[in-house]
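# step 3/5: fold
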Amino acid sequence: MRRSRFSDEQIIAILKEHAAGLGTAELCRKHGIGDATFCKWRSRYGGMEPSDAKRLRSLEEENARLKKLLAGSVLDVSTLREMLGKNF
């Protein structure tokens, strides 16, 4: 997946500018983002502080790592079951 050119802290700062009263179209034009991107950021990061965003990022990374571990163990179990089924 493509990484954003904006950090979590920058995204939250942009959202705070919007909360301060800057219009959506003007804000998007100022930072060079699209309306859809802004709406996605607002739904994901709305009301967060930078520390919350860092915690969210670390939890997402841990979740991805655990999913890979689980997928590997499920593959190992299925392979072992196939081998046991052929032997008996």
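# step 4/5: annotate
Residues 6 and 12 are 10 Å apart (CA to CA).
# step 5/5: archive (pending)
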